[in-house]
Amino acid sequence: MIKKSLPLYILIINIVLTLILSEGNISEAGFIAEPVIKGIEFPVTISFTSDGRLFFTERCSGKVRVIEKAITSTPKLLPEPVFRFGPVSCYFERGLLGLTLDPQFGKNGFLYVYYSHKGSGHDDPYRHRLMRITVKDNKGSNPVAILDNLPIGSQREWGHGNHNGGNITFGTDGKLYLSIGDVAEPENSMDMQSFAGKILRLNSDGTAPKDNPFYDQSKPDSPKSYIYAYGLRNSFDLTFHPATGILYSTENGPDINDEINIIYAGKNYGWGPDRISGKQNKKGLEDPIIVYPSTIAPTGITFYTGTKYPSEYRDNLFFADWNNGNIHRVILDNRKGVVSKVDDNFFKHDDGIVDMVEGPDGLIYFTDQGGIYRLIYKH
Predict the structure, then answer these.
(1) CA-to-CA distance for 259 and 241, rounded, in angstroms?
(2) I want to staple 70 with a disulfide (CB 3.0 to 4.6 A). Which of 2, 54, 102, 189 is the partner?
(3) What's the domain count of the chain?
(4) 129-147 pLDDT, tens digit each
(5) 252 in a structural domain
(6) What's the CATH number where 153 sits?
(7) What pTM, to 2 d.p., does this model score?
(8) Residue 336: CB atoms within 10 Å
(9) pLDDT digit string (tens) for 101-133?
C-alpha cells in the first residue's frame, strides 16, 4: 500500500512546492516579493504618479521609461521611452542615477533626473547634470539643465567612477534635495567650495534658497550656497518622515561603518581627509543613528504610511541593501527619530536591492538590477 501511494504523495508535494515557489520566498513576517516587471535594464530609481503610473530610469541606456497601471495585476510597460538622456557614461557606478516628479506633476508635468554625462571633449566635458523635462501623454520634451557642471571623478571611461550619489527628492518644504558623493576624493566632503560629498537643497528652478544654512548673498551660485549638509561619503538615498519632515539617508561607508543618518541643516557628518566614519562622539560631528561595522551597502530607504500591512508597520522606516538583498525594518520610538528596534532580517530578496518607495496603493515597491517588485503581505 505504501509503495503504491508513494508516487501520488510525491506528486502532491511537488505541486504544493511549485505553487509556493511560484509566489516567491515568504518571509517569517509573512511577506513575499511579487514581480511587477522583469527583464528590464537596471532600473536605478522609480517614482509613482498618483494615478498609478511608474516612471523609472535605465542606468546605461539613458532612458526614462513608464509602466502604466503599475499598481494593478496587469501592468503595461510602454515600448517607447518617455525621454532619452545622454550620452550617458555608464562606467563603474555612473549612469542615469536619479529621478523624481514635481509635487505639481499633474499640472506642470515636470520630471527631474540626475545623470553622468559622457563628454566629447574640452567644450563638452564629463560631468553630472541635474535636468528637468516636461512630460505630456507619457512623452518628455524641453530638456533644461537646472544645475550643470556637477563634479565627476574623471574625464574618461576609467579612473574614479564611483561615489556619485545622485538621489533627488522633494522635501515637505517643497524644495529639491540632491545627494552627491565624494566622487572617490574624501577631501571634497569638507570643501565648502565643492558640491561633492554633500546633500544640496535647491529651488525647483535650480537656484539656491536664501534660507540655506551657508547661503552666500554675494555668491548665490557658489557650491556653498547650495549646501544643506556636508562631510558625507556617498549618501545613496533620501526620505522624509511623513509627520515630522525630518530627513533620513543611507550612507555607504569605506568597507566598514555603513550608516543610517538623520540629516540636519548645516551639520557635519565627519567624512573627509581623515576618513572618519561611524559613531565618534566628537564635538562638531553628527553621529549616525545606525551603524553596520561590516559593509552591507545600504541603498533605498522609505517610510511606510499605508494600510495594506498590519498596523504595527505603519510609520516604520525601511531600508534595503545591495550586498545581501535584505530589507531592514526600523522602529522609531518618538518624533525625534530615536531608534527603538532594528530588524535586519525583515525580508530577504534573491538579488541586491537598489531603490525602494511606497506606492499610491499602500505597498512597498523595490528594484533590483533587472526588475521591479512589490512587497505583499500574505498572512
Answers:
(1) 17
(2) 54
(3) 1
(4) 999 999 999 999 999 999 9
(5) yes
(6) 2.120.10.30
(7) 0.93
(8) 9
(9) 999 999 999 999 999 999 999 999 999 999 999
